[in-house]
Amino acid sequence: MVNLEWFRTFKVIYECGTLTGAAEALYISQPGVSLHLSSLESYVGYKLFDRTSRKMIATERAKVLYNYIQEPLTKLEEAERHFHKSVERDVPTISIGMCFETFQYTLESYLPGLPFNVIIKFGEYPQMLSDLDAGILDLIITPQKGDYKGLLYEPFFKEKIVLVCGKGTSVADFDKFVKRDDKAACLTWLKQQTWYGTTGDMEHQRRFWYNNFGKRPDFKPNYIVPNLCSIIRCLSTGKGLAVMPDFLSRQELDAGNIKVLWEGKDPIENTLYFGTRKNTIYEEQIKVIKDIFLKEMGEPQSVF
Known about the structure:
Elements: H1 4-16, H2 19-26, H3 30-44, E1 49-51, E2 56-58, H4 60-83, E3 93-97, H5 100-107, E4 117-121, H6 125-134, E5 139-142, E6 151-166, H7 172-179, H8 183-191, E7 196-198, H9 203-213, E8 223-225, H10 228-235, E9 241-245, H11 250-255, E10 258-262, E11 268-277, H12 283-297
Parallel strand pairs: 3-4, 3-5, 7-8
Antiparallel strand pairs: 1-2, 5-11, 6-9, 6-10, 6-11
């Protein structure tokens, strides 16, 4: 029977690209890594990597194998972390899914003071919903609801998707175009500006554009940065435009470093939900996290 550690070692070699890197990641010796790989190659009956002086090059068969095992192994590793009991004391561990910006804005500064362990997972909302239903996550912060019968959704905040700009941006002309509802002039002006976007998701901009102009944006941002928080920092020190949720911009808006340029003709709102399972053993810990979010995000302008 195949040893699961062989698959784990293969996965890490594939992702690191070197035996040395894999050994460091797995906290085992390089000869141990080589032994696991050779054992797996003997088991499957074909070579998985072409060795060079600098890197392990995955074969086509290795790519197929990796696609088969990557997701199951990742879930097993998450389960291992989730259910591992502390050797010092029995401290509960809860796993929470949300987007990176939401974590950074609300929960990050509270982690050192929490009386329980926390595992934070970033990702796409459909996968978060699936992981919540499967027990891999215990709480998610999501604007989307799924069809899982065992999940509960508690609305707690409404965010607006707005067009923001740096305080140095000259907007007098655009304000005039908006007041006289000159869509063509608005479009021309917007395309002439400096735009910021993110590497992961441009869904906010696409929705805003389609909602106001009936089509997808036909231009690319001038600057692509890692996340929305990076955009806020860039805008707060210069000029430029971006589309993003208003609550993520609140601190810089209050400080006057950026401003809302336009909410659009028909403002877009997202309802944020606490997603949990109907039966959970972590009600006490989840309540602590919920209270932090309610404190940090404040009372929403819209009433549910």
